[in-house]
Amino acid sequence: MAPSALTSNDYIDLPLQTTPPTPPPPVLDASSSDLDLLRPINHGLTEAKRLISQALECRISTIDHDTCDVGDEDAFFVADLGEVYRQHLRWKLNLGRVKPHYAVKCNPDPQVLRLLAELGTGFDCASKAEMEQVLQMGIDPARIIYAQPCKTKSHLRYAAQNGVRQLTFDNADELYKTKQLLPDAELYLRILTDDSASLCPLSLKFGASLDNTRDLLELAHALGLNVVGVAFHIGSGASDPKAFLKAVQDARVVFDQAADLGFAMHTLDVGGGFCSDASFEDMAAVLSSALDCYFPPHIRIIGEPGRFYVSSAFTLACHVIARRTVNDPTLGTSSYMLYLNDGVYGNFSSIIFDHQNPVPRILRAGDRFLYAAHSSGYETPNMVDYSIWGPTCDGIDCIAQACSFPEVIQTGDWMYFEDMGAYTKCSATRFNGFTDKHSVVYVSSDPSVRALLQLE
Ligand SMILES: Cc1ncc(COP(=O)(O)O)c(C=O)c1O
């Protein structure tokens, strides 16, 4: 089905259906009670497991390793779009003031983007290709922020030619570039943050310090450029809510500097950094109260969440292509090295680039389908010990150095890994001739998604 063209100048909050077919779908707004919002979340969890299990079993039951064509047995994802939808509800419940602009870099999956487009989010794009992917869905360029403080000139020209005007910057050269190529840009000054408590610090590379912000604003003013707001990012996979408080306070300082120079800043961009675990509610609470304390209601607040939306929505299935038995004659024990058909040069790129420790679980051993049957390979001590490796020739290609399962896993068995939606497929390579195009089976544990995307 062709994606629908959403052309509004602002962000629409579509009526979101929580349970089909009656009662009539509630409109998700500030007046919806917490209970109304949480009901579909709880409902979705068991339904999600059932659908994911079904999709995994259905797919792997069609694969015969002895006869299949090359690629038929490749690793694949199951994506639960209902989980993306529930994360959106969670965002709105906890950060109702912040309009999310999904960070496309995190996982540019086309169905995720379609769903988020229908839900009315904006998009954070960092390159020409990301802008193009979003614009080709019929999205109004006003819903895109080109959130890359150091832009390639041809990509900036593309933005100018296609109506993308919101840009971030953090240095003087970028202002001259903007003056040349997109003089009517709506600029956000990205400031430095304390990102020491994040998985992936970004401030080493991006962000103007408060020592420089006044000079940059003066230059922008002298060049006749329009600085409309401040942006920050407290680091991807952040864990210290106080980083948000400090960043909001610093942003306030820059808003005041800008006002002194005659700029009427109207938007604060609080970036990404939110995790999908229980820390989200704590982070959101600190951020919300900081925003309410330092920024009056007429200031528009946007965010650039990536990981938060997709991490828990994607499950990856891989199979064991080879196994090596390691005997320890001194202890009289045996353990196994398992080689999977995906590794750190593929979808487990998140181990290297995103500092993740994906948790291995058994999906199928022999003819037994074991989805959700055991605890993870990190929680079953004193059983059969394994290390898990990827398919390439490189020794760095290790997925798990030590784990254990109650089963003796054989070549041809399948494993699965949950929470594989963020910074995985998008940073996979084709090293050693392996594919970076792993397929995705979509399910939706929430009927609203099927309705929004007009599936079935
Ligand atoms: C500018 C910018 N915005 C948003 C994001 C998304 O961050 P996260 O996935 O932690 O929400 C990133 C990630 O690197 C980023 O660099």
TrEMBL record:
Superkingdom, taxonomy of origin: Eukaryota
Gene3D superfamilies, sorted: Alanine racemase (3.20.20.10), Lyase, Ornithine Decarboxylase, Chain A, domain 1 (2.40.37.10)
CDD domains, per database record: PLPDE_III_ODC
Catalytic residues, chain numbering: C393
Cofactor section: pyridoxal 5'-phosphate
Molecular function via GO: ornithine decarboxylase activity
Domain Orn/DAP/Arg decarboxylase 2 N-terminal: 81-311
Pathway it works in: Amine and polyamine biosynthesis; putrescine biosynthesis via L-ornithine pathway; putrescine from L-ornithine: step 1/1
Pfam family, one: Orn_Arg_deC_N
Keyword annotations from UniProtKB, A to Z: Cytoplasm, Decarboxylase, Lyase, Polyamine biosynthesis, Pyridoxal phosphate
PROSITE patterns, A to Z: ODR_DC_2_1 (PS00878), ODR_DC_2_2 (PS00879)
InterPro entries: Ala_racemase/Decarboxylase_C, De-COase2_CS, De-COase2_N, De-COase2_pyr-phos_BS, Orn/DAP/Arg_de-COase, Orn_de-COase, PLP-binding_barrel
Polar residues composition bias: residue spans: 1-10
Recorded catalytic activity of this chain's protein: L-ornithine + H(+) = putrescine + CO2
Residue positions, PTM N6-(pyridoxal phosphate)lysine: K105
Pro residues composition bias: residue spans: 18-27
Record keyword Amino-acid biosynthesis present: no
Segments for region (Disordered): 1-27
UniProt record similarity statement: Belongs to the Orn/Lys/Arg decarboxylase class-II family.
Subunit structure: Homodimer. Only the dimer is catalytically active, as the active sites are constructed of residues from both monomers.
Function, as annotated: Catalyzes the first and rate-limiting step of polyamine biosynthesis that converts ornithine into putrescine, which is the precursor for the polyamines, spermidine and spermine. Polyamines are essential for cell proliferation and are implicated in cellular processes, ranging from DNA replication to apoptosis.
PANTHER family associated with the record: ARGININE/DIAMINOPIMELATE/ORNITHINE DECARBOXYLASE (PTHR11482), ORNITHINE DECARBOXYLASE 1-RELATED (PTHR11482:SF6)
Protein name stated in the entry: Ornithine decarboxylase
UniProt source species: Trichodelitschia bisporula
